[in-house]
Design goal:
Blueprint: H1 20-47, H2 52-74, H3 84-87
Helix pairs in contact: 1-2
């Protein structure tokens, strides 16, 4: 008969979420890349003598990319997945809806 022991919870630095400044930097970079693509679409739509479907595609990119860029820039940071042994921890943790500072 085997006796199963629970392994202790070990937290690793790689499990931590990125810092706020790193997250904002990534979102800013993504935003500027999308807006740069939008600018290229807009310039090409007016300057390149292309067939109508190609020009409409370029105009669509120039119209819809700002919306996509703003939604992506304002997206909240994704939660890092918990390791299996952390998720099964028996530690008493304050529930998310109860994490508040009393006055």
């Amino acid at each position: 008969m085997k006796v199963w022991h629970k392994r202790p919870v070990v937290h690793q630095v790689t499990d931590a979420r990125p810092s706020l400044s790193e997250d904002i930097g990534k979102r800013e970079k993504s935003y500027f890349i999308k807006m740069g693509i939008r600018l290229v679409c807009l310039v090409l739509a007016f300057t390149v003598p292309a067939p109508l479907p190609v020009r409409l595609l370029l105009f669509a990119g120039a119209i819809f990319l700002p919306y996509i860029a703003v939604i992506g820039a304002n997206a909240p940071q994704r939660e890092a997945p918990l390791a299996p042994d952390v998720a099964e921890s028996s530690q008493n943790e304050i529930p998310l809806h109860r994490r508040e500072i009393g006055s």
